[in-house]
Inverse folding.
């Protein structure tokens, strides 16, 4: 079984607008996420429940130790979280990602990337 | 009179006496401790039959066990050489003084023994058997009957486990603060399994099954009573056991048949246990720890509520999701699929359940049989038939046959 990171990307504007949604809508979104991750975990395919990534207090540091604020939510493909799943093949990981609630959001995408073993230099 | 008295005392005192002696001698001498206590009960049976039962049978037993231990020490050369060396003492007198059968030392010894028995070096099934034998004083016969296996299997399992504990030189002690958290988890897994052996055992002996549950709760309570082990997940496990045990009477009817949760008479749920469970749960959530026991206790709490309560199954599903995200368990995965059905209906639940791919699991097939009922009765029948082939007890088969019958 291989491990794949599922990285969630959305339109930055949608991420910034998340604070404005109604409690009922928030509840519904939470339920979607909970059921989707629960479904992966119920098949024993969840390797790490990962993290959501915040907007506030984010910084970017570039070569020469140049520190800037952001990434700002103006960016198109704003990363807002990840999980790690177990799958036989990348196609199986893709199947799991298909139900991901991030796909309902504006510009929502799931990027699927294999975890590379430390001794794999190919 | 002594015919009932001795088995009763045996159940209550055997474990205490073995535990105190064994924690005094060291883990390598568990067999000797057991022999000494067995001999003590043998003398009780002989003496009390001839001369009548003493006024305080328990102190009689303790005094005789103490003497027997002392005699073994005097006469058994191997034991004498080894134990005396291990205890590093000089005379018999100090030895006699040191077998302390006071309530406090019994409790302390049991707590220490719990950690020795639930040692990560031996498999959890062996831990459960050892706990049942040494801490709870069940006979090999009773253990074999409840675990649906043979006496010789249990004996083998116990023999190997004791051998391993001896080779590993496991200490009979509560681990220190660096180790306690991880070691406590092993103890909790064992206690939870012990409880489940009683709660879900297909054994027809209801009294014995209830005793298993009560013993698991008693041992968990010992952990709560001790400051270094009284962690919030221990309270959560205790709450979980209370919420489950409250349905003990309701889940089996007067004819010994299993009554499914949906069909249970709520008046037979034990209100007092639910209340106790609530108290333990309140203490479990004082800090922010969320263990699998917290989540399972919360699920069990929702189950103590009547079916029509709003949001009941939505909450149970959410909690099962969280439970699985924290740690996978096939039982939780199947229960989640059932909760999914209660919230989203049969067709979506069938899809979720089939993804689990637990073919060959009794509960997988009986769940799919249930979900397909009314959607595709042919599939339902097939799954119930597969479940029937896997069912171990008459009570389980009866439930499945009833379901099959109602499909026609």
């Amino acid at each position: 079984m291989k491990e794949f990171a599922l990285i969630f990307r959305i339109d930055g504007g949608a991420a910034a607008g998340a604070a404005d949604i109604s409690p009922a809508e928030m509840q519904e979104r939470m339920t979607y996420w909970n059921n989707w991750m629960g479904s992966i975990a119920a098949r024993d395919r969840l390797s790490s429940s990962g993290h959501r990534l915040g907007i506030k207090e984010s910084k970017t540091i570039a070569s020469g130790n140049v520190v800037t604020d952001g990434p700002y939510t103006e960016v198109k493909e704003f990363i807002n979280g990840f999980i790690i799943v177990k799958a036989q093949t990348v196609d199986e990981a893709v199947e799991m990602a298909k139900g991901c609630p991030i796909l309902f959001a504006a510009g929502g995408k799931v990027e699927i990337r294999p975890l590379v073993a430390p001794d794999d230099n190919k | 009179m002594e015919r009932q008295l001795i088995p009763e005392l045996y159940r209550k005192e055997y474990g205490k006496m073995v535990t105190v002696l064994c924690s005094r001698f060291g883990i390598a001498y568990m067999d000797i401790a057991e022999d000494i206590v067995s001999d003590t009960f043998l003398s009780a049976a002989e003496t009390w039959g001839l001369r009548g039962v003493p006024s305080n049978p328990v102190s009689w037993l303790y005094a005789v066990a103490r003497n027997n231990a002392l005699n073994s020490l005097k006469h058994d050369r191997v034991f004498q050489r080894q134990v005396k060396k291990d205890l590093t003492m000089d005379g018999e007198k100090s030895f006699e003084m040191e077998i302390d059968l006071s309530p406090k030392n019994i409790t302390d010894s049991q707590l220490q023994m719990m950690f020795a028995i639930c040692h990560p070096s031996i498999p959890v099934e062996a831990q459960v058997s050892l706990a049942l034998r040494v801490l709870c004083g069940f006979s090999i016969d009773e253990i074999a009957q409840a675990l649906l296996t043979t006496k010789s299997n249990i004996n083998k399992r116990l023999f190997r486990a004791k051998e391993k504990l001896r080779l590993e030189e496991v200490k009979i002690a509560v681990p220190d603060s660096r180790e306690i958290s991880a070691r406590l988890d092993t103890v909790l897994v064992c206690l939870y399994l012990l409880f489940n052996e009683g709660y879900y055992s297909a054994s027809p002996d209801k009294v014995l099954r209830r005793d298993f549950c009560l013993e698991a709760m008693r041992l968990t309570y010992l952990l709560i009573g001790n400051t270094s082990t009284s962690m919030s997940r221990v309270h959560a496990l205790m709450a979980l056991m209370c919420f489950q045990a409250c349905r003990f009477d309701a889940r089996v009817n007067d004819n010994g048949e299993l009554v499914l949760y949906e069909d249970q008479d709520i008046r037979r749920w034990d209100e007092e246990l639910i209340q106790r469970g609530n108290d333990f749960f309140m203490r479990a959530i004082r800090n922010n720890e969320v263990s699998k026991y917290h989540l399972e206790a919360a699920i069990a709490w929702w189950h103590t509520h009547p079916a029509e309560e709003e949001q009941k199954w939505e909450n149970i599903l959410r909690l099962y999701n969280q439970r699985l995200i924290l740690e996978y368990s096939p039982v939780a995965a199947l229960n989640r699929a059932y909760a999914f059905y209660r919230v989203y209906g049969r067709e979506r639940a069938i899809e979720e359940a089939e993804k689990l791919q637990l073919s060959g699991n009794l509960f997988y097939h009986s769940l799919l049989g249930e979900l397909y009922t009314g959607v595709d009765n042919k599939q339902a029948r097939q799954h119930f038939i597969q479940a029937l082939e896997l069912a171990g007890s008459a009570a389980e088969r009866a439930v499945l046959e009833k379901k099959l019958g109602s499909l026609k």
Observations:
- Residues 2-25 of chain B form the longest helix (24 residues).
- Chain B has a mean pLDDT of 89.
- Chain B touches chain A through 19 residues (CB under 8 Å).
